[in-house]
Amino acid sequence: MDPPFNETYKTLLYKQIKNTENSVPQTPFSFHVTAVVEEVELPLIDVSRLINGAKKEREKCKQDIASASREWGFFQVINHGISMDVLEKMRQEQIRVFREPFDKKSKSEKFSTGSYRWGTPSATCVRQLSWSEAFHVPMTDISDNKYFTTLSSTMEKFASESEALAYSLAEVLAEKSGRKSSFFKKTCVRNTCYLRMNRYPPCPNPSEVYGLMPHTDSDFLTILYQDQVGGLQLIKDNRWIAVKPNPRALIINIGDLFQAWSNGMYKSVEHRVMTNPTVERFSTAYFLCPSYDAVIECSGDCPAYRNFSFGEFRQQVQEDVKKLGYKVGLPRFINDIY
Fold first, then answer.
1. Per-residue pLDDT reduced to its tens digit, 160-190
2. Domain assignment of residue 13, yes or no
3. Most buried among 120, 122, 255, 312, using CB within 10 Å?
4. What is the secondary structure of 48-90 as a DSSP string?
Protein backbone atom coordinates (compact mmCIF):
# COMPACT_ATOMS: atom_id res chain seq x y z
CA MET A 1 0.00 0.00 0.00
CA ASP A 2 2.73 2.47 0.94
CA PRO A 3 5.38 3.83 -1.43
CA PRO A 4 8.69 1.92 -1.00
CA PHE A 5 10.33 4.53 1.22
CA ASN A 6 12.43 2.06 3.20
CA GLU A 7 13.68 0.28 0.11
CA THR A 8 14.53 3.43 -1.86
CA TYR A 9 15.97 5.56 0.92
CA LYS A 10 17.63 2.89 3.07
CA THR A 11 21.06 4.49 2.54
CA LEU A 12 19.82 7.79 3.96
CA LEU A 13 17.76 6.22 6.72
CA TYR A 14 20.03 3.56 8.12
CA LYS A 15 23.63 4.46 7.27
CA GLN A 16 25.79 7.20 8.74
CA ILE A 17 26.36 9.89 6.11
CA LYS A 18 29.40 12.08 6.66
CA ASN A 19 28.69 15.70 6.02
CA THR A 20 31.79 16.95 4.20
CA GLU A 21 32.37 19.68 1.68
CA ASN A 22 32.64 17.12 -1.09
CA SER A 23 29.57 15.05 -0.27
CA VAL A 24 26.45 16.47 1.41
CA PRO A 25 25.59 20.19 1.04
CA GLN A 26 25.06 22.04 4.29
CA THR A 27 21.37 22.41 5.06
CA PRO A 28 19.82 25.47 6.72
CA PHE A 29 19.60 25.49 10.51
CA SER A 30 15.80 25.34 10.35
CA PHE A 31 16.04 21.88 8.75
CA HIS A 32 17.18 20.39 12.03
CA VAL A 33 14.40 19.10 14.26
CA THR A 34 13.86 21.49 17.15
CA ALA A 35 11.59 21.30 20.17
CA VAL A 36 8.16 22.86 19.69
CA VAL A 37 7.37 25.22 22.54
CA GLU A 38 3.60 25.14 22.20
CA GLU A 39 0.57 24.31 20.09
CA VAL A 40 -1.32 27.42 19.03
CA GLU A 41 -4.51 28.38 17.24
CA LEU A 42 -3.95 30.55 14.21
CA PRO A 43 -5.88 33.84 13.90
CA LEU A 44 -9.47 32.87 13.08
CA ILE A 45 -11.41 35.02 10.61
CA ASP A 46 -15.08 34.76 9.64
CA VAL A 47 -14.87 35.70 5.95
CA SER A 48 -18.66 35.70 5.50
CA ARG A 49 -18.40 39.29 6.76
CA LEU A 50 -16.88 40.25 3.40
CA ILE A 51 -20.22 39.56 1.73
CA ASN A 52 -22.88 39.73 4.42
CA GLY A 53 -21.44 42.25 6.86
CA ALA A 54 -22.23 45.93 7.17
CA LYS A 55 -19.64 48.40 5.91
CA LYS A 56 -17.77 48.52 9.24
CA GLU A 57 -17.80 44.73 9.53
CA ARG A 58 -16.44 44.33 6.00
CA GLU A 59 -13.65 46.79 6.70
CA LYS A 60 -12.80 45.09 10.00
CA CYS A 61 -12.64 41.73 8.23
CA LYS A 62 -10.26 43.14 5.61
CA GLN A 63 -8.06 44.61 8.33
CA ASP A 64 -7.99 41.27 10.16
CA ILE A 65 -6.90 39.45 6.98
CA ALA A 66 -4.14 41.98 6.27
CA SER A 67 -2.96 42.02 9.88
CA ALA A 68 -2.69 38.23 10.10
CA SER A 69 -0.82 38.17 6.79
CA ARG A 70 1.68 40.71 8.08
CA GLU A 71 2.20 39.26 11.55
CA TRP A 72 1.80 35.52 10.96
CA GLY A 73 1.79 34.83 7.22
CA PHE A 74 -0.89 32.27 8.19
CA PHE A 75 -4.51 32.45 9.31
CA GLN A 76 -7.69 30.36 9.42
CA VAL A 77 -11.03 31.13 7.81
CA ILE A 78 -14.51 29.92 8.68
CA ASN A 79 -17.80 30.41 6.80
CA HIS A 80 -15.61 30.33 3.71
CA GLY A 81 -18.23 29.11 1.24
CA ILE A 82 -17.02 25.50 0.90
CA SER A 83 -19.51 23.16 2.56
CA MET A 84 -18.43 20.52 5.06
CA ASP A 85 -20.10 17.97 2.78
CA VAL A 86 -17.73 18.84 -0.08
CA LEU A 87 -14.72 18.81 2.25
CA GLU A 88 -15.64 15.42 3.70
CA LYS A 89 -16.25 13.94 0.24
CA MET A 90 -12.88 15.33 -0.86
CA ARG A 91 -11.18 13.61 2.08
CA GLN A 92 -12.90 10.27 1.50
CA GLU A 93 -12.19 10.22 -2.25
CA GLN A 94 -8.60 11.22 -1.60
CA ILE A 95 -8.13 8.39 0.91
CA ARG A 96 -9.55 5.94 -1.62
CA VAL A 97 -7.05 7.01 -4.29
CA PHE A 98 -4.09 6.73 -1.92
CA ARG A 99 -5.24 3.26 -0.82
CA GLU A 100 -4.41 1.92 -4.30
CA PRO A 101 -1.17 -0.10 -4.64
CA PHE A 102 1.99 1.88 -5.32
CA ASP A 103 2.45 0.52 -8.84
CA LYS A 104 -1.07 1.56 -9.74
CA LYS A 105 -0.72 5.02 -8.20
CA SER A 106 2.61 5.70 -9.88
CA LYS A 107 1.07 4.87 -13.28
CA SER A 108 -2.36 6.30 -12.53
CA GLU A 109 -4.60 7.02 -15.50
CA LYS A 110 -6.81 9.28 -13.39
CA PHE A 111 -4.41 12.19 -13.89
CA SER A 112 -1.82 13.37 -16.40
CA THR A 113 1.62 11.76 -16.50
CA GLY A 114 3.91 12.94 -13.72
CA SER A 115 1.12 14.01 -11.37
CA TYR A 116 2.02 11.40 -8.74
CA ARG A 117 5.09 12.10 -6.61
CA TRP A 118 6.54 10.54 -3.49
CA GLY A 119 9.58 11.09 -1.31
CA THR A 120 12.37 13.45 -2.35
CA PRO A 121 14.43 12.09 -5.25
CA SER A 122 16.96 14.94 -4.88
CA ALA A 123 17.64 14.23 -1.16
CA THR A 124 21.31 13.80 -0.28
CA CYS A 125 20.78 13.49 3.47
CA VAL A 126 17.93 12.44 5.73
CA ARG A 127 17.06 16.06 6.58
CA GLN A 128 16.18 16.67 2.92
CA LEU A 129 13.78 13.71 2.75
CA SER A 130 10.02 14.26 2.85
CA TRP A 131 8.12 11.17 4.05
CA SER A 132 4.99 11.75 1.98
CA GLU A 133 3.26 11.06 -1.30
CA ALA A 134 1.15 13.44 -3.35
CA PHE A 135 -0.86 14.01 -6.51
CA HIS A 136 -0.19 17.40 -8.16
CA VAL A 137 -3.20 18.14 -10.34
CA PRO A 138 -3.35 21.27 -12.55
CA MET A 139 -6.69 23.05 -12.58
CA THR A 140 -6.93 22.41 -16.32
CA ASP A 141 -6.85 18.65 -15.69
CA ILE A 142 -9.70 19.00 -13.22
CA SER A 143 -11.89 21.26 -15.36
CA ASP A 144 -11.41 19.08 -18.46
CA ASN A 145 -13.04 16.16 -16.61
CA LYS A 146 -11.13 13.77 -18.88
CA TYR A 147 -11.94 10.93 -16.51
CA PHE A 148 -15.31 11.66 -14.96
CA THR A 149 -15.40 9.91 -11.61
CA THR A 150 -16.69 10.74 -8.15
CA LEU A 151 -13.21 12.03 -7.37
CA SER A 152 -13.00 14.34 -10.37
CA SER A 153 -16.45 15.81 -9.75
CA THR A 154 -15.64 16.36 -6.06
CA MET A 155 -12.27 17.87 -6.97
CA GLU A 156 -13.94 20.21 -9.46
CA LYS A 157 -16.30 21.47 -6.75
CA PHE A 158 -13.51 21.88 -4.19
CA ALA A 159 -11.14 23.49 -6.72
CA SER A 160 -13.62 25.99 -8.12
CA GLU A 161 -14.76 27.11 -4.66
CA SER A 162 -11.14 27.32 -3.44
CA GLU A 163 -10.30 29.38 -6.52
CA ALA A 164 -13.10 31.85 -5.76
CA LEU A 165 -11.98 32.14 -2.14
CA ALA A 166 -8.35 32.68 -3.17
CA TYR A 167 -9.26 35.51 -5.54
CA SER A 168 -11.41 37.14 -2.87
CA LEU A 169 -8.61 37.03 -0.27
CA ALA A 170 -5.96 38.15 -2.76
CA GLU A 171 -8.04 41.15 -3.77
CA VAL A 172 -8.45 42.16 -0.12
CA LEU A 173 -4.70 41.91 0.44
CA ALA A 174 -4.00 43.90 -2.72
CA GLU A 175 -6.39 46.65 -1.61
CA LYS A 176 -4.77 46.84 1.83
CA SER A 177 -1.31 47.10 0.31
CA GLY A 178 -2.34 49.86 -2.11
CA ARG A 179 -2.01 47.68 -5.22
CA LYS A 180 -4.55 46.99 -7.97
CA SER A 181 -6.84 44.09 -7.07
CA SER A 182 -7.46 43.31 -10.76
CA PHE A 183 -3.88 42.00 -11.04
CA PHE A 184 -4.80 38.47 -9.99
CA LYS A 185 -7.69 37.94 -12.41
CA LYS A 186 -5.39 39.09 -15.22
CA THR A 187 -2.31 37.06 -14.37
CA CYS A 188 -3.42 33.91 -12.51
CA VAL A 189 -4.39 31.21 -14.98
CA ARG A 190 -5.77 27.70 -14.64
CA ASN A 191 -2.84 25.89 -16.24
CA THR A 192 -0.47 27.08 -13.47
CA CYS A 193 -2.86 26.94 -10.49
CA TYR A 194 -3.22 23.43 -9.08
CA LEU A 195 -4.40 21.14 -6.29
CA ARG A 196 -2.05 18.95 -4.32
CA MET A 197 -3.46 15.95 -2.47
CA ASN A 198 -1.09 14.79 0.28
CA ARG A 199 -0.72 11.62 2.31
CA TYR A 200 1.81 11.29 5.13
CA PRO A 201 2.23 7.57 5.98
CA PRO A 202 3.29 6.42 9.46
CA CYS A 203 7.06 6.82 9.76
CA PRO A 204 9.41 4.46 11.65
CA ASN A 205 11.82 7.35 12.41
CA PRO A 206 9.55 10.30 13.31
CA SER A 207 12.29 12.16 15.19
CA GLU A 208 14.61 12.03 12.18
CA VAL A 209 12.45 12.42 9.08
CA TYR A 210 10.04 15.18 8.05
CA GLY A 211 6.67 14.55 6.48
CA LEU A 212 7.37 17.67 4.42
CA MET A 213 10.72 19.41 4.80
CA PRO A 214 10.83 23.09 5.87
CA HIS A 215 9.92 25.38 2.98
CA THR A 216 7.98 28.42 1.85
CA ASP A 217 5.33 28.22 -0.88
CA SER A 218 6.21 29.46 -4.38
CA ASP A 219 2.82 31.04 -5.10
CA PHE A 220 0.62 33.95 -4.08
CA LEU A 221 -1.75 32.15 -1.72
CA THR A 222 -2.28 28.59 -0.49
CA ILE A 223 -5.60 27.26 0.82
CA LEU A 224 -5.25 24.10 2.92
CA TYR A 225 -7.82 21.60 4.08
CA GLN A 226 -6.33 19.13 6.59
CA ASP A 227 -7.58 16.34 8.81
CA GLN A 228 -7.37 16.45 12.60
CA VAL A 229 -4.15 14.44 13.03
CA GLY A 230 -1.95 17.52 13.28
CA GLY A 231 1.67 17.89 12.26
CA LEU A 232 1.74 21.27 10.52
CA GLN A 233 4.26 23.63 12.12
CA LEU A 234 5.49 27.11 11.27
CA ILE A 235 8.08 29.62 12.41
CA LYS A 236 6.81 32.49 14.57
CA ASP A 237 9.14 34.82 16.47
CA ASN A 238 12.15 32.68 15.49
CA ARG A 239 10.77 29.46 16.94
CA TRP A 240 8.77 26.53 15.66
CA ILE A 241 5.16 26.29 16.81
CA ALA A 242 2.57 23.60 16.12
CA VAL A 243 -0.74 24.54 14.49
CA LYS A 244 -3.78 23.24 16.35
CA PRO A 245 -6.25 21.68 13.86
CA ASN A 246 -9.71 23.22 13.62
CA PRO A 247 -12.33 20.99 11.92
CA ARG A 248 -14.39 24.03 10.85
CA ALA A 249 -11.60 26.03 9.29
CA LEU A 250 -9.40 26.20 6.21
CA ILE A 251 -5.81 27.37 6.63
CA ILE A 252 -4.54 30.21 4.44
CA ASN A 253 -0.88 31.07 4.01
CA ILE A 254 1.02 33.73 2.10
CA GLY A 255 3.44 32.59 -0.62
CA ASP A 256 6.74 33.99 -1.87
CA LEU A 257 5.16 35.89 -4.75
CA PHE A 258 2.87 37.87 -2.45
CA GLN A 259 5.78 38.74 -0.16
CA ALA A 260 7.74 40.10 -3.12
CA TRP A 261 4.73 41.82 -4.74
CA SER A 262 3.85 43.56 -1.46
CA ASN A 263 7.49 44.56 -0.83
CA GLY A 264 7.62 42.44 2.31
CA MET A 265 4.37 43.74 3.82
CA TYR A 266 2.94 40.21 3.84
CA LYS A 267 5.13 37.35 5.03
CA SER A 268 5.83 34.05 3.32
CA VAL A 269 6.60 31.99 6.40
CA GLU A 270 8.66 28.82 6.56
CA HIS A 271 6.61 25.79 7.55
CA ARG A 272 6.94 22.01 7.72
CA VAL A 273 4.99 18.83 8.43
CA MET A 274 6.14 16.42 11.11
CA THR A 275 5.72 12.67 10.75
CA ASN A 276 3.74 10.41 13.06
CA PRO A 277 4.89 6.88 14.03
CA THR A 278 1.42 5.31 14.02
CA VAL A 279 -1.16 7.52 12.30
CA GLU A 280 -1.34 8.64 8.67
CA ARG A 281 -2.29 12.22 7.81
CA PHE A 282 -4.18 13.61 4.79
CA SER A 283 -4.51 17.13 3.42
CA THR A 284 -5.48 18.92 0.21
CA ALA A 285 -4.07 22.27 -0.86
CA TYR A 286 -5.00 24.77 -3.58
CA PHE A 287 -2.21 27.01 -4.94
CA LEU A 288 -2.91 30.39 -6.59
CA CYS A 289 -0.18 30.94 -9.19
CA PRO A 290 0.29 33.35 -12.13
CA SER A 291 1.24 32.51 -15.71
CA TYR A 292 4.92 31.71 -16.19
CA ASP A 293 5.55 34.96 -18.07
CA ALA A 294 3.78 37.14 -15.46
CA VAL A 295 6.20 39.67 -13.97
CA ILE A 296 6.24 40.14 -10.20
CA GLU A 297 6.95 43.83 -9.64
CA CYS A 298 7.87 44.77 -6.09
CA SER A 299 5.93 47.82 -4.87
CA GLY A 300 7.19 50.98 -3.20
CA ASP A 301 9.96 53.54 -3.68
CA CYS A 302 12.60 51.18 -2.24
CA PRO A 303 11.75 47.74 -3.62
CA ALA A 304 13.35 44.92 -1.63
CA TYR A 305 13.25 42.57 -4.63
CA ARG A 306 14.06 43.03 -8.30
CA ASN A 307 11.42 42.32 -10.91
CA PHE A 308 11.21 38.69 -11.98
CA SER A 309 8.83 36.42 -13.86
CA PHE A 310 7.16 33.42 -12.26
CA GLY A 311 8.91 31.22 -14.83
CA GLU A 312 12.31 32.63 -13.81
CA PHE A 313 11.49 32.06 -10.14
CA ARG A 314 10.45 28.43 -10.73
CA GLN A 315 13.57 27.73 -12.77
CA GLN A 316 15.83 29.11 -10.04
CA VAL A 317 14.04 27.04 -7.40
CA GLN A 318 14.44 23.87 -9.49
CA GLU A 319 18.14 24.57 -10.04
CA ASP A 320 18.74 25.13 -6.33
CA VAL A 321 16.87 21.98 -5.32
CA LYS A 322 18.84 19.94 -7.84
CA LYS A 323 22.17 21.40 -6.71
CA LEU A 324 21.63 21.88 -2.97
CA GLY A 325 18.75 19.56 -2.13
CA TYR A 326 16.56 22.41 -0.90
CA LYS A 327 14.92 25.63 -2.08
CA VAL A 328 16.58 29.03 -1.52
CA GLY A 329 13.70 31.13 -2.85
CA LEU A 330 13.32 34.90 -2.46
CA PRO A 331 16.88 35.63 -1.20
CA ARG A 332 17.98 34.92 -4.78
CA PHE A 333 15.94 37.93 -5.95
CA ILE A 334 16.92 40.59 -3.42
CA ASN A 335 17.39 43.99 -5.05
CA ASP A 336 21.13 44.74 -4.93
CA ILE A 337 20.57 48.41 -5.79
CA TYR A 338 19.43 49.10 -2.25
1. 999 999 999 999 999 999 998 899 999 998 8
2. no
3. 255
4. THHHHS-HHHHHHHHHHHHHHHHHTSEEEEES-S--HHHHHHH
Mapped onto helix, strand or coil, the DSSP state of residue 236 is strand
Q: Is residue 306 part of a domain?
A: no
Between CA 274 and CA 270 the distance in angstroms is 13
pLDDT class for 266, splitting at 50, 70, 90? very high
Cβ-contact 314, 218 below 8 angstroms: yes
117 given a catalytic annotation: no
Structural domain boundaries, residue 162: 25-293
Give a yes or no: residue 314 inside a domain: no
Cα–Cα distance for residue pair 217/196, rounded to 1 Å: 12
Residue 137 lies in a domain: yes
Looking at residue 27, its pLDDT comes to 57
Amino acid letter, 287: F
Per-residue burial over 118-128, b = 16 or more CB atoms within 10 Å of its CB, e = otherwise: bbbeebbbbbb
Of these residues, 281, 306, 314, 332, which one is catalytic?
281
